[in-house]
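Below: protein 1.
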Amino acid sequence: MDSTGDSWAKTQHDLPTTDAGLGQTRPDDAGRDGGLPLISRGHALGRYLVIEPLGAGAMGVVYRAFDPDLDRSVALKLVGGLHEGSEGDDERARLLREAQAMARLSHPNVIPVFDVGILDDAVFVAMELVDGLTLRAWMAERPREPAEILPVFLDAGRGLAAAHDAGLVHRDFKPDNVMIGHDGRVRVLDFGLARATGAEPTRSAEVDEIRSSRRGSVGTSLDRSMTAAGAVMGTPAYMAPEQLMGEPAGAAADQFAFCIALFEALLGARPFSGTTMATLSMSVLQGKITMPPGSRGRAPGWVLAVLQRGLQVDAAERFPSMHELLEALSHDPARRRRRWWIGLGAAGVLGAGTLLGAAMTPEPEPVLEAPALCTGAEAAMTESWSPARADELGEAFAATGLAHAPPTWTRTRAELDAFAAAWVAEHTAACRATRVTGEQSTERLDLRMACLDRQRQQLGALLDELATPDPEVVARAIDAARRLPRPERCGELEALHTVTPEPEAPELRERLAELRREVDRVRSQVVLGHLIEARRRLDPLLPRVEGLDFPPLSAEVLDLAADLEADTGDLEVARRIGERAYVAATAAGDARLAASIARGQAFLVGNQLVHGEDGRHWVALSRASLRRLGGDGELEARLASAEGAIEVAAGHYAEALRAHARAREHWQARAPSGPDLAAVLDDIGAVHVVRGELDEAIALHRESLRLKELSYGPDHPQVAASLRELGSALSHAERYDEALEQFERGLAIDRATRGEHNRSVAVALDDIGRVLRRQGKLGEAIEHHRRALAIWEAVLGDPHPDLAVSLLNVGYTLVAAERFEDALVELRRALAMFEATVGPSHPYIVYASNSVASTLIDLGRYDEARPHLERVLAIEGLEVDPTLIAETRFMLAHALWADGGASAPERSRARELAREALAGYRTQAERWGPQIEQIEAWLAEHG
């Protein structure tokens, strides 16, 4: 508690705040990408003299430059736009290693690298300056025959093969990255996206940045958006399925891109159609090859059959390496005067519109369409999600009149597109595994299809709720779309083995299907913030579900009920319902659901209710379920965050940082520009605040804010939440004007997006009030807290722990204004409300009891203060910051001694309490120096 006066309430602890909840680049584009300014002619970059810019790419700018030491012109590429700090250092080190590996590679079909290094924090690569055309420009010069095209691609393929042999993967092979010199030699260039074979894949560069690209490509042409590299590690129009799905991209991905480019050169169009990122992804992930109109006879059938193998969805079904692919392309069967077959997997079937491997004659053969097996996924998805449905929802969002609604819908639509593409791919893969390749039983196919059907139903329920958006729906829409289940989970063998068989009786199956639809609707209402309506539906639904005696659905509905109770403030009820949910999930054998429920219980019990040991027990249960599941990186990361929260509540800040670091490591590897990482950074920043490490905290909160703005847009409520975190850190650093700037911006966003009477607005008003109090502007501070309190009372009702927190804020400010009697009224009301909502042993009881006692001490009413302090010290098993109890002990020491009738034993106890308080503060001596000095002086005086 703090204030500006000399009262006991000033010294020590602030209550934790309450929170609601791809086009080529033109030469004149040089310098606009990669975060690098355009460099003028004659400027020196190290020993190189810049002559002119040649172009810009996703990672930097390329210049024609002169090397005076060796008297030659070079192509000088500068790679910028790197992160600051240690992360940027790591990026520079990786780029240097890759360029150095390329410098060691010598092959006639790979552009030579002469020199690498660092210039002003940018990595530079000096390469051979090729006088000639890109392969794309060469293809566009005039129509070319296969006999002219194949030798050029064979040379380019040899360059790729040489790089693969050296342990490098290009990751962005396309006609723009191949040069044909006027000397006729073909060179592959721009290995700037290469990654050493076996290096840890960065899922973000594949999944999250592709999503980012997809968000920017809605409604744009494929030529403009799908062939630009942008922030994506590769070019989407040439990406292999594993890149689109976020899997590690090896040499087989280069093979896939090579086959797309050769197909395009021969037939005039790429094999996979799609005018947006979502439709292109669906085509690629289904292996749906489209023959361009009028292309019959333009390419030899045997070449197309070779390409078909290189374009297999499963990388294992492609050629073992580029060498085998080049070998196949080098042997024209017409020259060997025989027929041959190219094996293409079971029956050679890829799907509707794909190539059919067949006996090929020496003459060009037409490419036939395969039988229509496993082709219904896209049509099934269209029943729920289609461009027309997306347009309807977009109009509904726009009709809200909220300025941030249209950009929010664009991001939400991108997430829904991504889900739909993944669902179609998984549906097709499940079908093919049984109907085409025969590697999967019919029973497992049924399980996978049932899982996918439920996921599509959950999508439909969410879309129905999105159709009537209000401010809260708009605020939560992006996250709700992100929370849809991942379709690939329906292919996980371990998870399918735990599925409880459905009832055999038709009437029970019908009841189960109906109840699932209702549960899915309630879930969508909860995630979109329609809590009153959700409770209205859930109360009669719960006994109906439990009466069916089907544990998997009982676990789902109980988990939803626990979430609702926790949100409305009844944490003990939420705990009891959560326990029942876990038992039901365990009975159902659903390891993933059990792990998720246990994680939620760990946070509720260990952080919100501050029962540390019980919380850690739930962590162990969640981890055990994850082991049965075979692991789940996302759930493990969220569990690590829960662990961190438990240790924060217990005052174990070093342990909290270690747990949060594990979560951070996961999200940095999987989604380094996403909101999940932003949330973890805010968690870590908050720990640094309580440790007094304010520079670290401010830097983390600024990075979180940047990521939130990227993920949601600058005017989204999630951005306001990060502004509050940053403002809090700045306030603790006594940078009050800067803190107010962040809080005021966040308040403006909350008001514009959610209206005046909303929890987030109340939180922001309380935040501003605290800063004003610290600045000594007590009248303004009281006004802000009173306005916040009115909103809390209107939104939550009485009692609620968040309302009690707001009452404490009012009380603290009244104490600072020396209005002690008025303060006591609010502080006692807060204490009673905490007792009614969080129980008698919660840290909130400590805050409120200390506050009441400190105010009574200020009034000289020591005998009334002592019972409140004794009560705190009598709480068993309390795990909190030791400095909070140190505050209690020293206040009690003061009260015992100051009471004129204190006996010798009482005075002896007072000295012992002071020494214990001193030891507690010394655990964080760097933060609590003034308190340590105060107690030392008191002991010296009362020794």
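Below: protein 2.
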Amino acid sequence: AGSEPTTVNGLELLLGEGAAQPQPVTAVAAPATQPLDDAAIQPILDRMPDLQAEAGDVEEFKLPPQSLPPPTANTVVTQSFPPPDSGATAPEVVAGPLEVLRYAPEGEIPVAPFINVTFNQPMVPLNTLDALAAEDVPVKATPDLPGVWKWLGTQTLSFEYHTDDLNRFPMATEYTVEVPAGTTSATGGVLAETVTWQFRTPAPTVTRTYPAVSPQPRDPLLYVAFDQRIDPAAVLATITASASGRQYPLRLATAEEVAANKDVSYYAAQAQEERWLAFRSDELFPPDTTVTINIGPGTPSAEGPLVTSDVQSFGFRTYAPLKVVDQNCRTQRDSCPPGAGFYIRFNNPIDVTKITNDLVTVEPEIPGMVVSGRYDSISINGLTAGRTTYNVTLSPEIADIFGQTLGEPVSLTFYTGSMRAYLTGPSETLTTLDPTASVPAFTVYSVNMPKLRVRAYSVTPDDWPAYLTYLREYFRDTDRRPPGDEVLNTTVSVDGEKDTLTETNIDLTAALGGRYGHAIVIVDTPPSLLELIFPNSYEPVIQSWVQATNIGLDAITDQRDMVAWATALDTGAPLPGVELALQPSGAQATTDADGMARIALAGTPDNQLVARLGDDVAFLPQSTYYWNDYGWQKSERGDEARWFVFDDRQMYRPGEEVHIKGWVRTIGAGPTGDVTLDRMAGAAVDYTVMDPQGDQIASGSADMSELGGFDVAFTLPENSNLGYASVQFSTRNTATYGSYYHGFQIQEFRRPEFEVTARNETTGPYYLG
């Protein structure tokens, strides 16, 4: 008999988790305040004791300690200087007249950074810089130049030009260098005749001009840059602008005009100072006309007296009335391929911000039509059909960037031809057919291909390795035959409209020999149609291993076992009694009522899991990639150390102490593995601390507690480098070795004060002997 429900009479108490109830908070109004003036504040400050100064309170400039240098990978070899006397005798110097062996530079040169003169005899003794500075320089350069003469050895004298704003000789200048007769060498040789030569740096050369493209507005801002400093007003006097046989007056542009032009302002910012000028004409250039800008001859430089002897020119064209100048589909064909865009180009850049679908009319209509503009072109994209004439009408409201419009409608015609022949289908190496289909069919898609050649080769899972080898070699030898027996070689007609993607289902019943089976299927173009359909392009070929089965296979592995699951593809239900085998090792198992089975992995690679249920055979490869040589294989499992490490702050300043704690546990491998405390007598943790530059700044060890814990503390050096530092931990005297990396930051929040020491190395003259 069933039990009667219990009836409770009286008071019932329901217990639940308590929670604090929020109390309403009344905001306290801030009292009215009034700032004290200086007269009220001063008596208060006078009552306070004087601030006692202490030594070191104020420093004019406090530098941080020099940071640790990064570690070096080389070995420092200490040697004495000057080296000890080796006893070697000085080489004999052949006596004779002094000669100038060579000199540079000479003639026309683009840039002159130095002057070099080499003699055939020593000119100065080996000595200190101070001693050599007292020696006379036997070379004179005209005009006089600021810089330093230096001896490079005892026979070569070099002059380095240097000023605050130039590290080369001034341009547009002719220089004369002279070594006077009577110059005497350190060995007594005398120069019989004066040696003189000249070199010349070029007059101003144009390096950039603007504008560089056409068309341009009638009042453009003009820009010219040079390879040297110039006086803009003096250069402008040598520039002329002409159009239609007439010259137009020019003036320098204002700073506001330069800033308002994004191109000229960009070029000016990139150019070196005093090397460019911007100018314009206050008169409008005529429309649709070529404007020529001539610079020179006679263009002066701000660096030297030479002027240009030739004209340097550039030009551009002003805008013309807006019109269409080209139409195309961006193909090499006379007609447009179906689906390709229509492109219309104008003679002027158009206002792309105002281009919309409403400005273009197309008959017949294009499904999904989108009109867009870019620079000087309009593109019309959509699902255009093949073999169709499209009439395009452009609105007279289409405008260019100069404010002009077409003014009247423009009609254009585009013709679409046939689509290129096309074939596609399953691209996978292994394809499983739909088990619920009425017939086992292999589906491909084609365009403008009236017939398809279909070949099929009967195979079994044992042929899979040979199939992968065939795929590897196929692109080297397209005549190579796949494994298996040819069971189908036929031509299939494609029932589809021209220029339309057509689906073709190829019945493989004859090739499979029943409802289930395996075949390698190859679909391509019949040889009789190959030259007609693909005369100048690569022939598409669809090929795949096809399996017709109702067994769905899934597998997952660890280091020792594979767990496989077999289900029915048509219903998704588990399949019991499926015989499973790993190939080539032959390890076997049978699925249980849940479709599950466990198979022990072999010590050698297996690349296939084969399933059998009656006459239905399916397989799952370890990989379908034909260059893959791996497989499922047993591997060793080992215990590993796991770490939990933390520090107290994560960020520290130089000189502070870092505290790090942690615990180490062992994770056992295998089904019975667990988290254990693997501690032996004398167990410890060793650590090494590296700063951001790779310098070792601390090291040590810490004993592990009975619970596998450790506690580490170290002090950062005052001169530590700033950034991300690291600590490398490793275990010692533990059954399972482990290592761990822990990171923290070293930062110092202070003003970036630093000291720079500079010295003048160009005063002198100095001579190196």
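The chain has a mean pLDDT of 89.
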